[in-house]
Amino acid sequence: MDLNTIWFILVGVLLIGYTILDGFDLGVGTLHLFARNDEERRINMNAIGPVWDGNEVWLITGGGALFAAFPFVYATVFSGFYLALMLLLTALILRAVSMEFRSKVESGSWRKFWDYCFAIGSFLSALLFGVAFGNVLKGLKIAANFEYQGTFLGLLNPYAILVGLAAVAVIVMHGTTYMTMKTRGDLQERFVSFAGKGWIGFVVLYVVATIATFFAAPELMRGTISSPIFWILFIVFLASLVYHPVALKAKRNFTAFLSSSLVILTLMGICAVGLFPTIVPSSIDPSYSLTIYNASSTDKTLTVMLIIALVGMPLVIGYTYYIYRVFKGEVVITGDSY
User: Fold this and answer.
1) For burial by CB atoms within 10 Å, which of 76, 109, 114, 170 has the most?
2) How far apart are CA 267 and CA 130, in angstroms?
3) What is the pTM of this model?
């Protein structure tokens, strides 16, 4: 295993970590408007309030790792997705500001406005992340010299939107499963119901998206199925997906959350197996694709960054574990709550 492969795995780990951790935040926010009253909305926000900003550290770290290890990927994708990324950044900022501003004024209309901003920001973030991921799987219009020749509207193609909707479904499933650990009574039962509906929606969209992938990205499917790692991940994926509703019905909320986390982990792992060693395929000519070799930094840079990562990642993991341990358990609303 060379440095390029190691960094492909490390960047993937960071992005998967972000998707699992901030994914449930976005799922809770997407269903925020379905809360019946102000107390339930405060429970939603306080369930993720202590952890959401720490979860986003994984995205920042992943972006920094991508820039350091594969600068040509960073440059090409960020320039090609510029308008989409600005929209995504706006949605993420809107979500963060909503949490901080919502309870600053004792006004129903004020809170209602920020509740809508919180829900819209969460939904758009999940959808845009999924659409971006779908475009990467399908392949971007990358010409010679890593030049992106597509348009913003071209990113909104049917396949990418389908993957985006599947992403929304899985984060709703994941987020509502998380909330079953933070609530009790009737509210908990409603989140169990939401999680079940999210599970059904994801299964349907996943099957449709998988079929569509055979036509939109046939090379991806062929590369995936031929790998033994794919079959290991696929078996774990199916087992986790099947076990999720069983765990919810048995009120094993924590194991249900672990199973939804495994669904996300294995699904993204399967996509990574299909792409490897390519990072971003070119839909114009496969020879123009960005790979772990033609888009990477020098070996010296990769070596230095690996040393930094080996020191920094345990700190991030330790911090994450500590915060979740401190704020585990059901949400209790106090005067200092959101």
Assistant:
1) 170
2) 13
3) 0.92
